[in-house]
Design brief:
By secondary structure, this protein is mainly α. Helices cover about 55% and strands about 0% of the residues.
Length: about 150
């Protein structure tokens, strides 16, 4: 996988398009259109040597745009986990998009207090009951001779 925002050839997608990391989707689109017009291979059809370089640059511009114009891919790229060669790993990509989305939404929330965390832990231990009472043998578990609740 690529890390630290590096594209498949070592250059940064933002640099390829000549934009800042904080660029809006409109700025990304405008930069892409400008560079695509400049380096479109059809403009260099009469000069075969220049056409080869134009085609290479045009493909690199398209690659950068395809990632940065897609919010999910862009989030993965910014997080350093986007790999353009692993298109078949859609499940991992979906998982990472979901995780990044969840992390972004959690950042804006206020953290839970110790009391809230203790209450959640008690609910988990109690199996989701709201009474807060500890589970005993009547809850379906058998107590064996010499055993003690909470020790194993």
């Amino acid at each position: 996988m690529e890390s630290s925002g590096a594209a498949s050839d070592g250059s940064c997608y933002y640099s390829r398009l000549g934009i800042r990391r904080s660029a809006s989707s409109a700025e990304i689109r405008a930069a892409y259109r400008k560079l695509a017009l400049k380096w479109h291979p059809d403009k260099f059809a009469k000069n075969p040597t220049a056409a080869v370089e134009a085609k290479r640059r045009f493909q690199r511009i398209q690659e950068a745009y395809s990632v940065l114009s897609d919010e999910g891919k862009r989030s993965l790229y910014d997080a350093g986990v986007f790999d353009p060669f692993e298109d078949d790993d859609q499940d991992f990509s979906d998982f990472m998009k979901e995780m990044i989305s969840m992390m972004d939404s959690v950042r804006s929330e206020t953290p839970d207090s110790i009391e809230d965390l203790q209450r959640m832990l008690a609910e988990i231990i109690d199996g989701g009951t709201s009474s807060g009472a500890r589970r005993g043998p009547s809850d379906g578990a058998k107590r064996t001779r010499g055993s003690s609740w909470g020790r194993r």
